[in-house]
């Protein structure tokens, strides 16, 4: 897809924390800059991998402002702004717009289960009206976590009601047929479809999708950048094979603490292991398992990361 606002590889960025569980913005900003220098076109901050729902509205605002103050370009960031409250979703979205972000990622209202399509439409219709434009709204389809999927019908109604406002979707369902259905139905209207699964990057680009927004990009973005740049050919195929292998490695243990372990060992910075409850750091056995899986994939050492850490 041409002219996608966040076209390419976007990391679902880990949120660094101090021992008291407060955000460590210096550490996080350094990681974000490394990602942008090593294959990432953009950054999905405060999503699932960034533990957004473990942070308050005030903390989310402070994280975004702190990253910008430390030199992470606002234009590269797509903050997660979707919560179950219309008013806070609007507040976070307007805040992101005021900081210069081009788009936000919106979970559906996820507490009440089995809402009707009419209810989901009404929620996002109200959000769009209150936000008032000036920033792209991206839907976050992750039914395994939210238990509230986005149907094609709801997406179509939102595009009809708010042309140019609902700009795309991150589909973390793992169901490529669902991603392809969204592309087939809406790509001609400029709707950007991003895979939440690394193994689909090459395929979704070939079939009219915009790219990916993925957790494993915290460690495999170097190869994602090759796939996005080359698309086809031996080098792209080999890089896609690495994305698939590292995705499998990342999911061999609990995903978020597992990625923290990989970054901690790669940089020699144990602070990356700090994670807010209810998440917990990996056990020694699982930490060793995660590292062994990334080694077996051939990904370690992560390109440029030890150099970045030393600096």
TrEMBL record:
Enzyme class: lyase
Matches recorded under CDD domains: DHDPS-like
InterPro entries: Aldolase_TIM, DapA-like
EC number(s) stated in the UniProt entry for this protein: 4.3.3.7
Residues holding pyruvate: 49, 213
Keywords recorded for this protein, A-Z: Lyase
Cytoplasm among keywords: no
Family annotation (Pfam families): DHDPS
List of catalytic residues: 140 (proton donor/acceptor), 170 (schiff-base intermediate with substrate)
GO MF entry, a single one: 4-hydroxy-tetrahydrodipicolinate synthase activity
Similarity comment: family membership: Belongs to the DapA family.
Name the UniProt record assigns to this protein: 4-hydroxy-tetrahydrodipicolinate synthase
Record lineage: Bacteria, Pseudomonadati, Pseudomonadota, Alphaproteobacteria, Acetobacterales
């Amino acid at each position: 897809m041409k002219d996608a606002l966040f076209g390419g590889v976007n990391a679902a960025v880990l949120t660094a924390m101090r021992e008291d569980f407060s955000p460590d913005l210096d550490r996080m900003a350094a990681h974000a800059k490394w990602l942008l220098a090593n294959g990432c076109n953009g950054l999905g901050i405060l999503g699932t991998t960034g533990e957004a729902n473990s942070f308050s509205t005030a903390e989310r605002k402070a994280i975004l402002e702190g990253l910008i103050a430390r030199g992470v370009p606002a234009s590269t960031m797509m903050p997660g702004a979707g919560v179950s409250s219309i008013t806070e979703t609007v507040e976070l979205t307007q805040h992101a717009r005021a900081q210069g972000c081009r788009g936000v990622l919106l979970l559906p209202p996820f507490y009440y289960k089995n809402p009707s399509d009419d209810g989901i439409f009404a929620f996002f219709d109200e959000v769009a009206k209150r936000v008032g434009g000036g920033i792209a709204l991206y839907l976050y389809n992750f039914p395994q976590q939210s238990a509230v999927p986005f149907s094609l019908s709801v997406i179509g109604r939102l595009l009809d009601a708010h042309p140019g406002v609902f700009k795309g979707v991150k589909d973390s369902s793992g169901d490529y047929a669902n991603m392809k259905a969204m592309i087939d139905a809406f790509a001609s209207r400029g709707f950007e479809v991003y895979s939440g699964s690394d193994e689909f990057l090459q395929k979704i680009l070939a079939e009219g999708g915009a790219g990916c927004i993925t957790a494993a990009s915290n460690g495999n973005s170097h190869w994602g950048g090759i796939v996005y740049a080359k698309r086809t050919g031996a080098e792209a195929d080999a890089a896609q094979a690495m994305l698939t292998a590292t995705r499998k490695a990342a999911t061999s243990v609990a995903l978020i603490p597992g990625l923290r372990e990989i970054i901690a060992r790669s940089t020699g910075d144990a602070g990356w292991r700090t994670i807010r409850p209810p998440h917990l750091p990996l056990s020694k056995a699982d930490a060793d398992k995660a590292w062994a899986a990334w080694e077996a994939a051939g990904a370690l050492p992560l390109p440029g990361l030890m150099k970045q850490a030393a600096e």
